[in-house]
Amino acid sequence: KQATKIVIAGGGAGGLATASQLQRKFDKDGDILIIEPSEKHYYQPLWTLVGGGLFKKEDSVRDETTLIPEGTKWEKDSVIKYIPDENSVLLKSGKKVSYDYLVVATGLTIYWDKIKGLKETLGKNGVTSNYSFDSVEKTYDFIKNLKQGVAIFTFPSTVIKCGGAPQKIMWLADDYWRTEGVRNNISVQFNTAGVSMFAVKKYSDALDGLCKDRNVQPNFKHNLVEVRGDTKEAVFETAEGPKVVKFDMLHVTPPMGPSDEIKSSPLADPATGFVSVNKETLQHVKYENVFSLGDCSNIPTSKTAAAITKQAPVLVANLISHKNGQPLAAKYDGYTSCPITTSRNKVILAEFVYGNIPKESLPWDQSKESYFAMGLKKYLFPTAYWSGLLNGRWFGPNLFFNPVSVPDVKKN
Ligand code: FAD
């Protein structure tokens, strides 16, 4: 009897959570391999708090080798080509790996190059981004050193990781400048390519209120296209044409999208370039033995680690059902969550499902700023991530109880 060969491309949040749950279910009946090029794994949601000066960046990183589930193999390499018609993937090293099942979880690609001048000036001239481990600590340096002038926080025209993160750091900075007594000397602007503060109306309305109360200027339909570091100028595309704005500090959320190898593969959704899956079962729309979750998939919800807490058990249940020859019964409802830090001790905890419909877990109105939710963001979520999600034992608002009924693997 042959073990089922499962290849997982990507050992990030989605890849590790899925591997842990599959490993436990398949045990010796599975031959599970993670393909992941990086020796380091990052808890990216912490970068907001690192940029805000509340944690050190070292707190967000661990060695990948310590996170690979026992019994699962790790190939330190990248997938460069998906060949689903042959049930195989090609790796950068030239090696071809075949599979019975493939799970694609390679995350989002950040297109730093798409903003002219950004790479050259990132980390200098007041220009920073929480979206990179290399620049995240610069954010706090620039916040601390700014005593007056113009601070701009941007949001691009593409999908991004965690839709709230571009403004979370703005509110943390606003709070810092208030305690330092310099806030009245600083003009704070949120320049977004979008048309509202947040995708879900309930939270967007609350954030509109905060903008008024805290004298933050939102500028909608402002898409950053160029940064001129030496003259401290940012160029935005607007409905009225290009607009050049002087800044003293600029926090950039860069454009993001699917990786080249996914976009050019038969797995891609032609409209978005992400892996095309059924939004409820997470099975590929064409290749039955391919599944995907997390940021690299075309699942139409906000891309977060919180979403993965609900996606992974659905994917695992459906992969096993498929293997057993049973119908795919588990369904993902689009659950995602975004703890929007509105100061250094308060959070608006957005939680919602498909259709941008709020689905809150706490017994009060979560569009109100809450100390308790900040406690979750600072203390519970990091522990739940490292010791729960990556081990396949954390199910978001269901805590340690898997709400999905996962079938046992039928013996061959
Ligand atoms: P990732 O965790 O990014 O993992 C992808 C993995 O695939 C990486 O390890 C990468 O090395 C690997 N890989 C890439 N290409 C290949 C390849 N070709 N072959 C093999 N492997 C490959 N989420 C929340 O829930 N709450 C938050 O508050 C929050 N805040 C955030 C703040 C910031 C600043 C950022 C950057 C993210 C935030 N997120 C938040 C989002 C969260 O981090 C991501 O949604 C989550 O990590 C997605 O998991 P993933 O497995 O899809 O991708």
UniProtKB/TrEMBL annotation:
Domain FAD/NAD(P)-binding, by residue range, is 5-125
Q: Which GO terms describe its molecular function?
A: FAD binding; quinone binding; sulfide:quinone oxidoreductase activity
Q: What's in the keyword line of the UniProt record?
A: FAD, Flavoprotein, Mitochondrion, Oxidoreductase, Quinone, Transit peptide
What does the entry list under GO cellular component? mitochondrion
* Gene Ontology terms describing biological process: sulfide oxidation, using sulfide:quinone oxidoreductase
Principal subcellular localization = mitochondrion
Q: Which cofactor does it need?
A: FAD
Pfam families associated with the record = Pyr_redox_2
InterPro entries recorded = FAD/NAD-bd_sf, FAD/NAD-binding_dom, Sulphide_quinone_reductase
Q: Where in the cell is it found?
A: Mitochondrion
Q: Which family does it belong to?
A: Belongs to the SQRD family.
The protein's name: Sulfide:quinone oxidoreductase, mitochondrial
Which species? Cavenderia fasciculata (Slime mold)
What gene is this protein translated from? sqrdl
